[in-house]
Design goal:
16 helices, Rossmann fold, 6-stranded parallel beta sheet, alpha/beta, binds GDP-alpha-D-glucose
Length: about 475
């Protein structure tokens, strides 16, 4: 089988056995271990001098190739164009977009640098799998360097409709490069539809069966919802619930049920609305005061981007306000925690929580929703309250689906979850757990790579094949 070259902005932890924070690394490792290959990405360090060559570390049949980013590159490519321009755009938040010609230039420059490093690592017969919005133009930059091997791209975020994509200045220069890939993968069918619609109506691509043709290239859009390893997460949760952190949490709650949220502190996750829903619950349904506790873990993220600092200040104020208003001498309604926990601890917390609250305004998939389900006790499962705007809502139809903007509706869903009888909880949980088992993170990685390696005999558009 072909060797795989995985490219992502950040790579998974290099030390074997060290738990990766998200699920993605599990699937990627597994496929890399099966085929051998290279995982290329930013080392996470900012450096004074842009390096001439990546540093290589080998582990078994996988080489990890990492490069540092110069300070200007970091500011323009990462904090700037990736996280202050593309991230809000891709999450439908046009009002939050910050754009500058310098950051666009930095984004294109770093993608060129990465392509230059990669072109030297790629061998005949390799296939290349590029991840996420930081690296949209990478495939085209590789093609310009003569790479003819198959290259696939997977977008972890949503892709908005064409009208939203068009708000990006020079959008064709960015999104048009996606035609350089052989397969462009998305989390949901809506995202894939938005892509095809953009390519056809904006760039003049034509549909050829399941494929799209543009200029001299033929490429396809695919739907590959990312999964987790549900049985592994369940085992972790079952052990962790008896360990000291969860035991301490349980003791501190008294008899009160726990409602938990775990998110990166990011405006796509809808935390201000979530806090308003909690305020609505306590204000409109006073019988629940002092009878349930909310734990919101919000790990700090991208603190060098202005919108993230503003969001943090807003949430600090909201949590303080709600707690000031409703707390009692023996109870605090919202425990708002800005630190991160290890994966095992989170799994134990999830298992004990009667309700999992996952209410993003827009989310590519949302792995927390899946992890919460996997962590539950089969004989006494909790209830997932899930935003209809998370990619996960397409699969987890047995969650209590909510519109996160409707704070009164979310408050009611939380109460319904808290009061739900065991048989209904069990039915809903079983249906969701089966879904998770049918599409694990391994299946996701395998399906993507299979799609990329599928027969390419017809990869020249009919109109150009001279037939
Ligand atoms: C992007 C897309 C898509 C969170 N806090 C801690 C911690 N986490 C872990 C969670 C989960 C992961 O991080 C977060 O994944 P999400 O999917 O929820 O969200 P993003 O980070 O925005 O991920 C998203 C994903 O890519 C995959 O394609 O689903 O839509 O935005 O695994 O458990 N892990 C640890 N400590 C924490 O405090 N250890």
């Amino acid at each position: 089988m072909s060797r795989i070259i995985v490219v992502s902005n950040r790579i998974g932890p290099i030390e074997e056995g060290k738990a990766a924070p998200g699920g993605l690394a599990v699937g990627v490792y597994e496929i890399l271990r099966a085929t051998g290959g290279v995982w290329f990405g930013w080392s996470g360090e900012t450096v004074d001098q842009t390096p001439q060559a990546p540093s290589l570390q080998t582990q078994g049949n996988i080489a990890f190739a990492t490069v540092g980013l110069g300070r200007k590159d970091y500011a323009e490519y990462y904090a700037g164009f990736s996280n202050a321009t593309l991230w809000p755009l891709l999450h439908y938040r046009t009002g939050l977009i910050e754009f500058s010609r310098d950051s666009l230039a930095g984004y294109l420059r770093v993608n060129e640098q990465f392509a230059a490093h990669l072109a030297r690592l790629i061998e005949p017969g390799d296939i290349v799998w590029v991840h996420d919005y930081h690296l949209i133009p990478l495939g085209a930059a590789l093609r310009r360097r003569g790479v003819t091997q198959r290259i696939g791209f997977f977008l972890h975020t949503p892709l908005p409709p064409r009208a939203v994509m068009r708000t990006l200045p020079d959008h064709r220069q960015i999104f048009g490069t996606l035609s350089a890939y052989d397969v462009v993968g998305f989390q949901t069918a809506d995202d894939a539809d938005h892509f095809s619609d953009y390519m056809v109506r904006e760039l003049g691509a034509s549909r050829q069966g399941a494929r799209l043709a543009l200029d001299s290239r033929l490429f396809k859009a695919g739907v590959f919802p990312i999964g987790i390893d549900p049985d592994d997460f369940a085992r972790t949760a079952a052990v962790a619930v008896g360990q000291s952190a969860t035991r301490r949490l349980i003791r501190s709650l008294g008899e009160r049920p726990l409602v938990i949220g775990v998110d990166r502190l990011d405006y796509s996750k809808g935390l201000p609305f979530r806090f308003r829903a909690i305020e609505n619950l306590l204000g409109q349904h006073p019988e629940w005061r002092n009878r349930c506790t909310f734990l919101q873990v919000a790990t700090l993220s991208r603190t060098d981007v202005k919108q993230y600092r503003e969001l943090r200040a807003e949430l600090d104020a909201a949590a303080g306000h709600i707690n000031g208003r409703y707390a009692d001498y023996d109870w605090t309604p919202i425990r708002y925690v800005n630190r991160s926990f290890n994966r095992n601890t989170l799994a134990g917390f999830f298992r004990h929580a009667r309700v999992g609250l996952v209410t993003p305004l827009r989310d590519g998939m949302n792995l927390v929703a899946k992890e919460y389900v996997a962590a539950q006790r089969p004989e006494d499962p909790g209830v997932l309250v899930l935003s209809q705007f998370a990619g996960a809502a397409n699969e987890l139809e047995s969650a209590l689906l909510v519109n996160p903007f409707d704070v009164g509706g979310v408050a009611q869903a939380i109460i319904r979850a808290l009061e739900m009888p065991l048989p209904e909880r069990t039915d809903r949980w079983r249906a969701m757990m089966e879904t998770l088992r049918r599409n694990t993170v391994r299946d996701w990685a395998r399906r993507f790579v299979e799609s990329l390696t599928a027969n390419r005999a017809d990869m020249r558009p009919a109109a150009l094949s001279g037939a």
